[in-house]
From TrEMBL:
Entry annotated with the keyword Hydrolase: no
InterPro entries found in the cross-reference section: AAA+_ATPase, ABC_transporter-like_ATP-bd, ABC_transporter-like_CS, ABC_transpr_TagH-like, Bact_Polysacc_Export_ATP-bd, P-loop_NTPase
Lineage: Bacteria, Pseudomonadati, Pseudomonadota, Gammaproteobacteria, Lysobacterales
Species annotation: Lysobacter yangpyeongensis
Keywords per UniProt: ATP-binding, Nucleotide-binding, Transport
GO molecular function: ATP binding
Protein name: ABC transporter ATP-binding protein
Length: 255
């Protein structure tokens, strides 16, 4: 049985704040910048998140910039350890969060397929079988022995995308759709993602596009300042979010 459960998940991170400078001269400002010790504070980014996703659930993560969507995806993937609470994952999990994770600029394309494949959790034998399909999908057959740093940004993105999506998993965690790359690759990438989403048992997708979220997802979770404010049908979640934003835009004192 495939499932994804977050139990009372909270995440605190340390932040280092530089004190406000009101120096009168550029020299005292320079001295302040060099010698003022930053103040350490703890900031809560996620607070008390509880939910369980089961087979067939496609959850839209909805919220303003900085609400905690990407952070929650990273905690679900295990990239960040929650400060309190726990995450239980049953099934294989693919995260499309950072397509250049595990890349090394000095290594060749072939070596990077190994590096990235290892970072994702593939075994060496599995990675060897993936080399040809990855090169084929990314259109980089002619560049297999080139160093990564000689590739364009779009070619690197193609490579990262081709590796990350090479294998179908049970659970898919995604942050927006990949926006770079040329028109031809974008069409290919969308087709592959649609296939992966359709064959995944559980999907969690963070995006600001209401159209995309309502076409892919059946449930929606609204995050605000790291708290889960709503979980339910995706249309109700989008409506809840619109009202939340509208209420905050009202002048003080207006109900
Ligand atoms: N490593 C970190 N240290 C300190 N604060 C962080 C760290 N990572 C994220 N934050 C803060 O956590 C909050 C949530 O960030 P997150 O990237 O999860 O937001 P988001 O909802 O995905 O936003 P967006 O829609 O802009 O992508 C933000 O206020 C951000 O500044």
């Amino acid at each position: 049985m495939i499932s994804l459960r977050a139990t009372d998940v909270s995440l605190d991170v340390p932040v280092y704040l530089q004190s406000e400078r009101s120096a009168k001269t550029w020299f005292s400002m320079l001295l302040g910048a060099a010698f003022d010790a930053p103040r350490r504070e703890t900031r809560t980014i996620l607070s008390g998140i509880n939910f369980e996703a089961r087979e067939g659930d496609r959850i839209a993560l909805i919220g303003r910039n900085g609400a905690g969507k990407s952070t929650l995806l990273r905690v679900l993937k295990g990239a960040f350890q929650p400060t309190r609470g726990s995450v239980q994952v049953s099934g294989s999990c693919q995260a499309l969060l950072n397509v250049s994770l595990g890349f090394n600029n000095e290594a060749t394309v072939r070596e990077n397929i190994f590096l990235r494949g290892t970072a994702i959790g593939f075994r060496p034998a599995q990675i060897r079988d993936l080399i040809e399909p990855v090169l084929d999908f990314s259109g980089l057959q002619g560049k297999v022995n080139y160093r990564l740093k000689t590739l364009s940004a779009g070619q690197r993105m193609r490579l990262g995308f081709a590796i990350s999506t090479a294998v179908q998993h049970d659970i898919m965690l995604m942050d927006e759709w990949i926006g770079t790359g040329d028109v031809e690759f974008l069409a290919k990438a969308k087709e592959r993602l649609s296939g992966r989403v359709a064959s995944s048992k559980i999907v969690v997708l963070a995006s600001h596009s209401a159209g995309l979220l309502s076409s892919v997802c059946n449930k929606g979770m609204v995050l605000d300042k790291g708290r889960m404010e709503f979980l339910g049908d995706v249309k109700d979640a989008l409506q809840f979010y619109r009202e939340l934003v509208k209420a905050d835009a009202q002048p003080a004192g207006v109900v």
